[in-house]
Structures are given as structure tokens and as C-alpha cells.
Amino acid sequence: MLANPNQSNINSSSPLIRSGSKGQPKAGILGGGQLGRMLLQAAANYPVETFVMENDPNCPSAHLCHHFTKGDITNFDDVYNFGKGLDLLTIEIESVNEEALEKLQQEGVKIYPHPSALRIIKDKILQKQFYKDAEIPTSEFIITQTKEELPQHEHLLPAVHKLGKGGYDGKGVQIIHTKADFEKGFNGPAVLEKMVTIKKEIAVMIAVNDKGETAVYPAVDMVFDPSLNLLAYQVSPADLSEKTMWKVEAVAMKVVKELKSPGIFAVELFVDLNDQVFVNETAPRVHNSGHHTIEANYSSQFDMLWRVMLAYPLGCTDHILPAAIVNLIGAEGFSGPAVYEGLNEILQLENVFVHIYGKKETKPGRKMGHVTILSKEKQELIHQATRIKNNLTVKTLS
């Protein structure tokens, strides 16, 4: 085991191995998209029997698990019936029925993250209130019920209006620059938060096991596509001063500690022009901002979550090499069977790793894969990321 300066209080106690039908723990994943797919790829290295529930039998995860169940992750009965015969459960998307998870937890199923943490995070209203109550720095905000209320809060402009529930991958988010944009707001419970003048957008992945021990991944710089509000590419480690890095890690750690839950968490933060740090949002699961860890770090975020859930020692979060990732997004104007143009050329590049998510159909803005680049030189990472973004496209047969 490699020494890990970011890992705290690790001991050498034996892992807890539960007994499934094959003498292995039974682990369920709610959701069958690309995060579940990569989690299952990492599961192949461990003694675990895997189960997936998703409403699409052709989802990216379906053929990689030992057992697949067709079901609705938002439905109480489907989630409860899926989980009641398992030893542990995790999620790959927040929109899971947490009432069913609470009942399963009461009956002895281990849930990662705890339903109490999921309940806070899946509702952006509760999430922002959580930051405020825990004295975690976050941007000024108010809660609205209808867009007709927005003119009362002109002092917050420019601002971002976020639906309390249901938003994902940039959906349910509207930027309000001026009074003329109030009409773009949401009719429904939402958060209106003052925009931060951003120098950097940063993400930190933190793993927490059942003992409360933690492992922290190096922070990453995130660059977003302004039109899609999706991550376009990122560079790791983040280019921050030592003092700012300490602030970022301290704030991210406070978020995770206050949630009081084992699992893995992605804390997204803003660094403003004065190097003040504000939490934007938190994801209670493996996350796009941690995909580079598959090749770039000794223990990937997916490997780490299995270590947490199976009660093994936490892994080493150190970099092997600096990295960048580029998301492969369905091109505008193309819907139908996916075709990857430029793939052959990109695969000829050195230290470039392509991950295709196995989604048969593409549509504009859909996440179809990602590419990881490794290099000691930051400028090389940015150069190759731009090259890949411009030359590898997801379209359909003409």
C-alpha cells in the first residue's frame, strides 16, 4: 500500500465480508448510466456480487452487472423490493426514492450515501440552507416559489435561478443577468442565488468510510461550456496557491463532515477574484469531475467507493501524472444511432484514453463519453484537450 498524505486514520483491520449467494457481499446500484458502468468496471477487481436497477434494459450498465432488474428508481416499491435482499446499496444519480432507502437502512441494508445526506443534497433549497446553517461559505440566496417573486430581489442581480428538485446536468438552471431576464425564471420552489465573480471553478472529491476516515483527491480546475452549462474539460491538479488550496480543501472537508455520511462526495466550489472560497453544489456520488482518476490517480474514485462500501482500507489519492479530461457530448443537430467521428485519429495520440459510455442513441448535449489525457506539462494537457474537443465529435449516420 502506498503512503497517502491525504488519507487519515487508516488502520489495517480486516475488511467486513458479507455473505451473498456466491459467498460474496451483494451490492446494488440504483441507476444504470455511465457512472454505474464505470463503477461496475472497478467492481471486477473485488469479491462482490453486483445488482443494477434501471428502467432501460439496454442502459450502459446492464450487461456488466451480475443481475439486472428493470424498475423505476423514483418508485418506493421498486427501490424497496430491489434493495431488501441486498447487503449494500449506492446511487449513480440523486433522483432516487429516499423514503425506500430509509426503510431499507432501518432494516439493516447499508446505504451509501446515507438517505439523510441524499435528502439534503437532492433538493437545492435544503442544500443551500444546509450550507447556511453549518456556516459553510456559499453565495447569498433567497428561496422563491414563483417567478413573479423575482422582481422583489433585484438586489441579487446578476443571479442564478435553480429549481429545488429535478435539475441535472445544467437543466433546471437559469442565469438572470438583468430585470428583462426575470421571465426566464421557474414557477416552482427554487433558489435565487447571487452570482460570484469567478476566478476559478474547482471540484474536490472526498471519500469517507463507515469509521469516518477520509481520503481527499487533489482539487481540479473545471471549465464549463457556457451554452450547455456542462463540464467541457478540466485539468488536475488545480492551479491554485498553497493558501487558496488549503481554503478549498478545508471548506470541502467541512461540507462532507457536516453531512455525517459515508460514501464519496464531489464538492464544487468557486474561487472569487479575492481568493475567497464559496461552495456551489455537492454531489453525493462518483462524479464527472473525478473521471480522470481512472488513469491519473493510484486509486480511482470508482475503486475508492468499493473500498468504502466493502470496508477495505481507503486507497491512495496521489496523482500518477497530471491529467485533463474532455467530455464527449452529442453534437447539435444530430439525434439517432451514435457515430464517433475522429476516433481513429484521437486514439493515435500518446497518453490519451477514450471512454465510450455505450449509449446507442445520441442527441444534442447528451454525455456520450470522455477522454483523459496525461502529461507532466499543463500546456500540453490544454493543447490536447482543445484538439480533442475540436476533432472528436458524436454524430449520426448521414
Strand content: 25-35%
Unreliable runs, pLDDT <50, ≥5 residues? Answer: 1-21
- CATH-assigned fold name of the largest domain: D-amino Acid Aminotransferase, Chain A, domain 1
**N- to C-terminal distance:** 51 Å
Overall 3D geometry?
Answer: globular
Topology:
Blueprint: E1 26-30, H1 34-43, E2 49-54, E3 67-70, H2 76-83, E4 88-91, H3 98-106, E5 110-112, H4 115-122, H5 124-133, E6 141-144, E7 159-163, E8 173-176, E9 190-194, E10 198-208, E11 214-216, E12 220-225, E13 230-236, H6 242-259, E14 263-272, E15 277-283, H7 293-296, H8 301-309, E16 323-329, E17 336-341, H9 343-347, E18 352-356, E19 361-362, E20 367-374, H10 378-391, E21 393-396
Parallel strand pairs: 1-2, 1-4, 2-3, 4-5
Antiparallel strand pairs: 6-9, 7-8, 7-9, 10-11, 10-12, 10-14, 12-13, 13-16, 14-15, 16-20, 17-19, 17-21, 18-20
Give short descriptive properties of this protein.
single chain; 398 residues; Rossmann fold; Dna Ligase, domain 1; D-amino Acid Aminotransferase, Chain A, domain 1; 3 domains; nine-stranded antiparallel sheet; five-stranded parallel sheet; 10 helices; disordered N terminus
Please provide a written account of the structure:
With 398 residues, the chain is α+β, with helices and mostly antiparallel strands. The chain has three domains: 95 residues, Rossmann fold, CATH 3.40.50.20; 55 residues, 2-Layer Sandwich (Dna Ligase, domain 1), CATH 3.30.1490; 199 residues, ATP-grasp fold, B domain (D-amino Acid Aminotransferase, Chain A, domain 1, 2-Layer Sandwich), CATH 3.30.470. Helix content is 24%, strand content 29%. The protein has ten helices and 21 strands. Strands 10, 11, 12, 13, 14, 15, 16, 18 and 20 form a nine-stranded antiparallel beta sheet that branches. Strand 10 and strand 11 form a beta hairpin. Helix 1 packs across helix 8, helix 2 runs parallel beside helix 3 and helix 3 runs antiparallel to helix 4. The longest helix has 18 residues. The chain is globular and about 60 Å long. The N terminus is likely disordered.
